[in-house]
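hey all, quick one before standup. I had two proteins in the batch that finished overnight and I want to keep them in one place so we stop losing track of which output belongs to which input. First protein below, input sequence then structure tokens straight from the run.
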Amino acid sequence: MFRNQIGQVTLEQACDQTTQLWSYAPFVSHYLDANRDISLIPWPDPWVLLYENYYCDIAKSLGMLYTLYLSSHRPKDIALVMAQDLDTKQGYNLVQIEQGKYILNFEFNTVVNNTLTENLKVLRRYTAQDLKIDLY
């Protein structure tokens, strides 16, 4: 199982492998709404996300977050961050770990750090606690 495999390597390697895995997920343009109130309508849990098999940019980030959090690494400081580039106004749905030491889904199939994302304005931030991942 993939989560067991990434539990045997460093967190940095686990981030790289998780990004590579999720780069192969089939992409759809719209599945999850960035403006949804997750206190009223929560994001799909990891098993529903996999079952439905629709992966917009938000869903891919959510899948990466679930994968890493549910591995033996279980990063305490992990969040789904919705941000916008201040210059281009392009939106990003990112997985941020250890206050930006590792950022997934900023560049395709690549893990970056917060020095490459300094020009982003955070619009929303969902922690593991907000997403209630401990229930899974």
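OK second protein, same deal, sequence then tokens:
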Amino acid sequence: MKNLVLSLIIASTSFCQFNPGAKQIGMANSDVALSNDAFSIFTNPAGLSQTNWRELGIYYSPAPFGMSELANGFMAFHEPTKYGSFAFGAMSYGFELYRESKFLLGYSYNYLNKYFFGVSVGYHSVLIKRYGDDNAFTLNLGGLVYIFNDLRWGFALTNLNRASWGDEKDQIPVLFNSGLSYDVVDNLSLNLSVEKEINFNPSIQFGVAYDIVDFFGIRTGFSTEPDRYCGGIGINYSYFQFDYSVFHHAELGFTHQFGLIFSFEELGNRAKKIREHLQMN
């Protein structure tokens, strides 16, 4: 059992720290400057206030790398108000021998429909059967700027306070992510970001999102450190957005993800609705 638990701890440092969202993973998590749905609380909390409608999101990966013990699920809820956007997120990862949980509270403010600022506070807990448990609080910051209507720059700082478990440093990663998102046309965006974790090489992430029609879109992307090749689809219908993605790890094979977002008003095309809200048309 000890060897299995230790292998899962090692795996957790590489998989469960990918941010959730089947759409986001389909673009190789290159969306720090695009973040525009409820899952932004995990990616870049600043992006929450790009939308002015309530959303509930659910994400599930049932067997990463073919191992059901690595199953993980996330949920996110976004509530816009005249004082800014508020959000709540939760995560569960692992199984009865090793379990990680995370809860986030986030806030985002929109200034002049051009500058977006966000902050979130996270409560993390870990439980290893027969070895004990621990918890920690993290502070996360984010920003997003519309340089032009079709060009955005964003950044996110995760675990700014360098919280960790036990006496070991950096058990919870300290991450800096920065990138650009460019709308080639209204329904096609190119996304590029660089993510750096302390003591590790930077990861370059590139992704494309293309809405072929209002109710159907495709995504693809790749990243380095680790090398991943990603793809996915999105289906929009009425109040629902269903997303599926898959990525391939060079050594561990394929992993599948599923996501569902329920909007409390009819959504249609997300990019068009955001442009209308930000008065860009």
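Flagging for whoever picks this up: The chain is about 10% helix and 55% strand. Residues 1-6, 8-15 have pLDDT under 50 and may be disordered.
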